[in-house]
Amino acid sequence: MKTIIILLITLGVGIAIGFTFNQSSTVPDDQSAEKKPLYWVAPMDSNYRRDQPGKSPMGMDLIPVYEEGASNADTGPGTITISSAVVNNLGVVSEPVTLRNLSQDIHTVGYVQYDENQLIHIHPRVEGWIEKLHVKAAGDPVKKGQALYELYSPELVNAQQEYIAELSRGKKGIIEAAKERLRALQMSERFINGLTAKRKVSQTVTFYAPQNGVIDNLNIREGFYVQPGTTMMSIGALDQVWVEAEIFERQANRVSVGQSVSMHLDFLPSREWQGKVDYIYPSLDPKTRTLRARLKFQNQDLALKPNMFAQVSIHTQDLQSVLAIPKSALIRTSHQNRVVLDIGHGQFKSVEVIIGAISQDYIEILKGLSEGEKVVTRAQFLLDSESSKQSDFKRMSHPLTLPNASVMGTINTINTNERSLNISRGPIEKWNRGPATMDFALSPELSLNSFSEGMHIEFTFVIDEGSFIIQEWRPMTQPSEDGGH
């Protein structure tokens, strides 16, 4: 019996050991299949590379970068592979490319102005002196028929005397002509009727407001001498106002007269005004490259004041079923627009896209993506930096057309903040330039850690928008007297 028990125990232990061994034996196979990182980079600076794990200058864990994955043969150049743990640590978020309706509302700014159709400028029609001013300051409200100023003018006195004289003669035709002259000099019907009844000349004549509104551009005071060319004041009506809005050139074709507009102002953020596009100006501002559109709003409570700053939204027709991505996924550069494509299995690749309409949250994609593909919407900048170093737009046609030269020099100082080197270079024969000491910026593909002060190098640089950018370099054992080429 004891022998049987010992045999059973031995058999059970053997099975358990065998099962454990079979399980553990699969681990080395999986580990051997796992790829080894090519190098480690800093999360905030892809130019900081190390050949083993560690910390970045900012104290963050270095991130491993792997060789291009073999699971997708058609991913092409620029594909990078990152472990799932690193993807989680970076907080990478991807969203699918979808068909959706895009709102094309144009959000811009504008300034409240008087409705110029209701803006009246007050000029005298004779020479004279302001005896009394009934309005004292710009911004004073006035009502139609309210007295504005009193004017003494010899010409007005003579016109009154002629009218009274004709009244005494009693000739209707001449009397009517004398009355028309008084009207032409802007004398009111009230004044003319009083002159007819009293037949007494007034040394000063009172002039009245032709409409309701507020005083603007008050340019006179009591005692001022005025003449027909003098703009004494303006009266603007505020029951209806204009808003001058600025539209970007790329949005100009989406604006048309009659479109509805909503407006908000900071002084009363809870209120929304509704208006219409009243007029689109025929030319763009040559400095700002924007198109001006005139918007019309009702202002019965006079809450809108001239020169107020406003945020306006012009409501245009929506785009139906267009390919779109979230706005946060787009990476803009001076030469192209691109996104980071999430291929799957920890693989990512930067691809160029051509964009169309831009809404508040989404961007239309005209070329470069297909429905159902996934794009990275968070933490995409580090992935894009690594992918671009290996991708097919690493060297684009634009830099090749830039002026370039090769030359030898000695590094004097290194500026880590601006990623630049101060170099005493040799002469450049093809440009007839002698030796010089100057600053050179580094191309994004080059690591600043490869350089040291006092190093002798041969390098090729380009001139791009006034900056001298080193594209290629190699170390030299000693400074050379040869010129650049």
Notable characteristics:
single chain, about 475 residues, alpha+beta, conserved putative lor/sdh protein from methanococcus maripaludis s2 fold, nine-stranded antiparallel beta sheet, 7 helices, about 20% helix, disordered N terminus, disordered C terminus
Descriptive report:
The protein has 485 residues and is an alpha+beta fold. It folds into five domains: 1-34; 90-99 and 322-390, Beta Barrel (conserved putative lor/sdh protein from methanococcus maripaludis s2 fold); 124-231, no CATH class; 240-314, Elongation Factor Tu (Ef-tu), domain 3, CATH 2.40.30; 397-476, OB fold (Dihydrolipoamide Acetyltransferase, E2P). It has helices at 2-33, 84-90, 154-169, 172-184, 189-198, 380-390, 397-400; strands at 39-42, 45-50, 63-65, 80-81, 93-96, 98-102, 106-114, 119-122, 128-133, 141-142, 147-152, 204-208, 213-216, 225-226, 233-236, 240-248, 260-265, 273-284, 290-298, 309-314, 319-326, 331-332, 337-344, 347-358, 362-367, 374-378, 404-415, 420-425, 436-442, 456-464, 467-476. The strands form six sheets. Strands 4, 5, 6, 21, 22, 23, 24, 25 and 26 form a nine-stranded antiparallel sheet that branches. The chain has a six-stranded antiparallel beta barrel with strand order 7-16-19-18-17-20. Strands 27-28-29-31-30 form a five-stranded mixed barrel. β1 (39-42) and β2 (45-50) form a beta hairpin. α3 runs antiparallel to α4 (172-184). It is elongated.
